[in-house]
Amino acid sequence: MPNSELMPIGVFAQRSGLTSSALRFYADSGLLNPTEVDPVSGYRYYSADQVARATMLRQLREIAMPLAVVEAVLEARADEASRLLDEHVAKVVGDAVAAQQKAAVIKSVLGDVSSLPIVVLKGPVLANAVEQVLTATAREPGMPVLAGLCIEASHEAVTLTATDRYRLSTRTLVPAEPPRQTWVGTVDGDELRAAIAEIRRSALVRLEAVVHGIWLRMEDREDRYCRLLSEEFPDYRLMLASLSEVTTRVTVSKELLLRALEDHPGDRIALHVTDHGMNVRSADDEHPDIPLPATATGQSLQTWFELTTLYPAVSTAIGPDVMLDLRGHDQPVTIRSADRGDLTTLAMPIKSDHRSV
C-alpha cells in the first residue's frame, strides 16, 4: 500500500491545478511520473515535492509551449530555461504578427473592400516620429486608447499624437506629397511599433485607410496592416487651448539635463529655476543640487516631477537644446526643441515634496 505521505491523483490534481486526465497524459509522456502506482488497483500517487514541477508544467503549457520544449525547460538550469522561454515567446509573438498580417490580406480581398489614400510620408522620418510619440503611451485596463497613436491628416500636414494621461506627445510632419484629403484615426500602438523597422527601410510610405485599419504601403517591402482602435481619442486640442500662460521659460542642453536626471538618486525630482539658471533638486538635503547652465526668463519656480514622466519627455526631444515652458508648480510643462517645434511634449507635475525653495 502507498505510504500515508503520498497524495492520490485527485488531491494532487487540486494542488497542482492540473486535471486528473492531464496528469495521466503527462505520465504517459514521461514528463511527470507518479511516485508510486498501486500494482493491484493501478491507482497513482504523487509526493508533495512534485507539486512545484507539476505547477511549472501547467504554466508552460498555458503559454502553448510544445511538449519537447517543456521537457527541456524542466530539465534545464535556470539560465538555459530562461533562454528557452524567451525563444518560445518570441516565436509566439512572431507567429501572431504573421497571422494578423495574413488575416488582413484575406480581409482585403473579401467582397469589395476599397481603401482610401491618405498621405505619403518619408519612411525614415515617419519611423522616428512614431518611436518618439509612442513613448507617451500606456497599457491600462479599460482604456485601450491610451496605447494608441492618433493620426490626423490635413491638407497641409500630418500630426501624430499619443498620451498616457501624465504625458502628451505630438509631432507634426510635412508629407512627401500633399494629403489627398483630411482623415483622423487612432492606430494600435503595438502594431505600429512592430512595423517601425520596415517603415524605416522604405524611402516612401503610403498610408491608406480601410474600414477597421490602415495599410502602410512600402515599395520593395511587404505592406503592413495596423488596426484602428474604436475608442475615441482624448480631446487634446481642448487641453492645449486651456493651458495657462507661460510664466517661466528655460533653454538648457538636452545632454546635460539627461545626465543630471540619470545621476539623480531618487524617483522624484524638482526643476528649480531662477534667473541664474536651473538646478535638478532632490527631496532631501543628503543629495546636493545638480546645477545646470541654462538661459531662463520669467519668474523663479520649482516644479516636481516623477522621473518616469520627465526623462522620456526630455530624451525624445529633437536637437541639442530643449526649451521648457513652465506655468506654475501645478501646471503641465511644455518640452520641445529649442530650434524645432514639430515635436512637443507635455509633462504633468506632481505635488511638491518637503524640501522648500
Automatic annotation (TrEMBL):
The lineage of its organism: Bacteria, Bacillati, Actinomycetota, Actinomycetes, Kitasatosporales. Transmembrane segments: none annotated. Its main location: cytoplasm. SUPFAM superfamilies: DNA clamp (SSF55979), Putative DNA-binding domain (SSF46955). Belongs to the beta sliding clamp family. Pfam families: DNA_pol3_beta_2 (PF02767), MerR_1 (PF13411). This is MerR family transcriptional regulator. GO terms for cellular component: cytoplasm; DNA polymerase III complex. It is found in: Cytoplasm. Keywords: Cytoplasm, DNA replication, DNA-binding, DNA-directed DNA polymerase, Nucleotidyltransferase, Transferase. One of its GO terms (biological process) is regulation of DNA-templated transcription. PROSITE patterns: HTH_MERR_2. Residues 6-76 form the HTH merR-type domain. The keyword Cytoplasm applies. It comes from Streptomyces sp. SID12501. InterPro entries: DNA-bd_dom_put_sf, DNA_clamp_sf, DNA_polIII_beta, DNA_polIII_beta_cen, MerR-type_HTH_dom. The keyword Transferase applies. GO terms for molecular function: 3'-5' exonuclease activity; DNA binding; DNA-directed DNA polymerase activity.
